[in-house]
């Protein structure tokens, strides 16, 4: 499109808030009770990270890689492609990014030293807290906002909590892949936050603040390591 | 207190009216108000139906049914022009489904757009759009926001010559690229232009609307309510006494009457998801329209709120 600078963010908002939130209600209705399974899988990853086995140090990384790859791919196919893309053509460009993230997460979980989870430090603790909030508190947001509970965004079925939980858990991880695995979840949080902001929804600040927090903490983790080389 | 005489026109307003082709004059009592497409002489109801945001409801069956209800009410109230674009997500498919449900009303005046930077992709996009609507041909196809306008206009004019569409147009919104828009209006054989115009966004009054009248180009007004922001802003504000004199019972009707009272405007295309609103919008195109002086008062009053 020519003269991009003449467009405002709300020129690209193609749908109403009502239509948007009903996407999640339709997703939840169609897939119930899968929400329980995806949330349990997310909590299992958290537990595996919290109680790493000395005998199988790579186990949490493998569980993390398998579960996260599955939920990223499933969210891309079931929500982005099937429900969101029909009302927002820009989302079609996000679908390959979600599948790429799924592939990267799987690869990082399978290769030695991809994502290694040790005892969480302060940064990792903040990441874990963010992940647990994404798993348990994010679906409860309709209770605060006044939306129908059926429109809850659940980890593994909705992109925002999936990205936030993934980003939070990556803060606990050590390994060479952090800089590769973080950009897509953070970019999604930024994109979704801006969309919600354009919709005039106060919830916009949750993905935006999550992305900012994770980015800032990731920098503190990555920069000293780079500087020390 | 406003008198009927004053409503019917000041000298300046009457002069503006007189400058237009005779059939283009305002029908003060018809319901709904009908205007004439200058290039053909075809009459067209002055209130159409936009689909930006409101019809982009994806595969949601409940919302699709609501859109079909809006279309049914629109046709029942005498409406004809429905406008959409490939940019509007699922809106085209929703319009198509609604038309099918309504038995493909003969009254339909289909207005679409081509929206791609690739000249080569234009015909394929128009054909895909046509299949989504389920129509034999479009009445009007416009170059959306002047994107790739030179190549697309050549395509559209050729299609018109071949009888594959009836009218050709260009669009802009929210005051974008008015200089280029004006240049294209001057040089190309356009039937329609589409632009944003309302009591607060009056840039088009300076050059584009007079030029459209001069060149005999029909004008479609988009975003009359600033995507609902204007009516939300006015929500709760009491209607002044002159609104009653105009027969307006809502701010939406006041705004539409302001727009339609400009002699160069052919059709305004408000978008809505509500049946009562579509009826209200079409009702605005009946009865009395404000004269030039009252239009200034309307703009000043709304601007001050």
TrEMBL record, chain A:
Spans through the membrane: 30-50, 57-81, 87-110, 122-142, 154-173, 180-198, 204-223
UniProt-listed InterPro entries: DUF6064
Domain of life: Bacteria
Alphabetical keyword list: Membrane, Transmembrane, Transmembrane helix
Protein's recorded name: MFS transporter permease
A Pfam family this chain is assigned to: DUF6064
